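>> received
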Amino acid sequence: MNTLTRTSPTPMAAPAPSIHPATRMGHVHLTVADLDRQLTFYQNVLGFKLHRRDDGSARLGAGGEDLLRLTEVRGARRVRGRTGLYHVAVLFPGRRELARAIARLFSLRHLNHPTDHIMTKTTYLDDAEGNGLELYAESPEDGTFEIAGDAFAARRADGSPSDGREPLDVEALFAHLTPDDRLDQPIPADTKIGHVHLHVAAVDDAVRFYHGVIGFDLMGQSRAYQAAFVSAGGYHHHLGLNTWAGHGAPPPPPDSLGLRYFTVALPDQVEFDRVLERVRRAGIAVVETEEGLLARDPSQNNVLMTWVTKES
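>> returned
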């Protein structure tokens, strides 16, 4: 990754391209200091399955494609006020599965913060080394949540307003559980990475990269909240971009805990080639790997772009 150079894409005069609507998020790769400790957390606390373990690295998920990869760097440390990962959001297939995950956290007395975003039900927590996580399920039948007039705005299905950050009615969520639900069950097979939130140095630069070059649709940007959201196919957001670590924040040093890269999974090689052409036309340095194309955004966050094969 050290061969990549820092670049800022040139603002595009023409309308921004739109990425294929079937584009989604793939696995997220983290640097960890203690692999055994992190594997214990993700398996025992969250219910991830261990897909593979090699010397100093591991792959986890729900039994299919990887959702998370971990690489151990002994002595790696947490550095605050830098760009990188804000949180990884794990999307559960429904409220019952989310209820099981939150009940498991409660039973283990693991600190978490259940929150009602109206259109999603969620809880926030940290892993064993302080990486931010969100566990959530979609609930669009309950209302909407969007950026309007430079502010976050939510509205319930009955039309009443909400700030979109209410305490979650945990008892109502737990009502979806049955007596047969075991809390020690692994996460369901259709669990996936729903979205990723990034700390960036400048929101406008990040939007020019992810919207203007990569082609994600801009779903909303708030200068007051120093954040923007982009997605494919009309989803509320696949990527969150914020400067909450500080405007102009530098990238973390190489020996830092946290994000190595996250993955954007394109639906086929035709769309992959279209994105690659836009990236190269913008003069952004790339590295081709066995799995796809690795590039850096203007804040030095690494993004792996790949395409979905029939085998995956």
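>> The radius of gyration is 19 Å.
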